[in-house]
């Protein structure tokens, strides 16, 4: 087969995106790229990947990142705890308790089934909207009081507010040697040029064997990454590190 599977780049987190490109380079470096007329393309991808790695490490190494991760973990736990508690309360025998739990549960799910899986600022915005509903809608306030979870909800509000303040501080103080989305774009172009040449040579070369081997390797790699991202987005992955967020404008490709 001399076609290359489409990678779901728009859903790759920055770390996934960067590691994918490193893996692509590793595949090509197993071959004599000079003989395959691909050296310049591989070198361009390699250089853009090195640059992206420097920017990525600078962003992840900011002094506030560990604190953000700690706050986000606590916020996630509060969201998950509230969601699971409401689920448990729907199994109680008291009709008023069940009704209150289902009322809150319905509002919670109207904002998303797995809010804690969203990116940092998406989660902040959605949690704010949820908390606003629960603070301003009388029936939801009454349900919270009945289920005795007002302290838990208050904790979530405090964590969300503190997280947002810390996130803004990091954005204002972080050294930015380059924009990550710009570096992603450069890597993407280098990758597409490389695979386009690979596919072209696999169709016109007298001996197509090595090109087809490379294509098979790329397809296997892309399949693994796409599956991993699909599992993460569906909530079946145990990955909870959201500090490494997708930066491209589109979520799906």
Low-confidence stretches: 237-241, 246-253
Q: In total, how many beta strands?
A: 0
N-to-C terminal Cα separation, in Å? Answer: 22 Å
Strand content: under 5%
Number of domains: 2
Q: Note the total helix count.
A: 9
What is the radius of gyration computed over CA atoms, rounded to a whole number of angstroms?
A: 23 Å
Spell out the helices and strands N to C: HHHHHHHHH
Structural class: mainly alpha
Biggest sheet: strands, sense, closure?
Answer: none
What does this molecule look like?
This protein has 253 residues and is mainly alpha-helical. It folds into 2 domains: 9-62 and 180-233, no CATH class; 65-173, no CATH class. The chain is 71% helix and 0% strand. The protein has 9 helices and no strands. It has helices at residues 14-28, 39-60, 65-89, 95-110, 120-136, 138-147, 150-173, 180-204, 209-233. It starts with 13 loop residues before the first helix and ends in a 20-residue tail after the last helix. The relative contact order is 0.21. Mean pLDDT is 88; it is low at 237-241 and 246-253.
Task: Provide a compact summary of the structure.
The chain is mainly alpha-helical and 253 residues long. It contains 9 helices and no strands.
How would you summarize the topology of this molecule?
Elements: H1 14-28, H2 39-60, H3 65-89, H4 95-110, H5 120-136, H6 138-147, H7 150-173, H8 180-204, H9 209-233
Helix pairs in contact: 1-2, 1-8, 1-9, 2-8, 3-4, 3-7, 4-6, 5-6, 5-7, 8-9
